[in-house]
Amino acid sequence: LPERSTNLLGVRHILLVLSGKGGVGKSTLSTELALALRHHGHRVGILDVDLCGPSIPRMLRVQDRAVHQCDNGWVPVFVGQDRAIALMSIGFLLEQPDDAVVWRGPKKNALIKQFVTDVAWGDLDFLIVDTPPGTSDEHISTVEALRPYRLLGAILVTTPQ
């Protein structure tokens, strides 16, 4: 692996959270899963690749924070006094939290790849990847970028309909 893509080598388990449609609770499940894992003593990260609807910063009440650069890339935002949850989201890169992200596929895919390779996660027990709704290019880009790191699995969120 190239040097810049070693940022995920300290992550033991990667879980994708997916669904075929929006509004089913992917971000809520990702957030609650991270909180539950943290409660059990695990070091947890959340990678919010829902570029058009980055809701996790708001759910964790850190939407006013900013990411910073270090030698290994972006430093995620740490949540809570114990700093046991690391979070990266496009929500931290927007001028206003409610700004719309209107990008075409290649730009979205490039940002997802940059999130995977250029965030300095450090040592984590779990990295939860919250994906956008549907089955778009973003999902393929995410899986391709994470392929070298052996995904633990995926959680498919559905509704009873």
UniProtKB/TrEMBL annotation:
Biological process per Gene Ontology, one example term: iron-sulfur cluster assembly
Source organism: Oxyruncus cristatus (sharpbill)
UniProt-recorded name of the protein: NUBP2 factor
Keyword hit for 4Fe-4S: yes
Pfam family, one: ParA
One Gene Ontology MF term: 4 iron, 4 sulfur cluster binding
Keywords: 4Fe-4S, ATP-binding, Iron, Iron-sulfur, Metal-binding, Nucleotide-binding
GO cellular component, one term: cytosol
Gene: Nubp2
CDD domains assigned: Mrp_NBP35
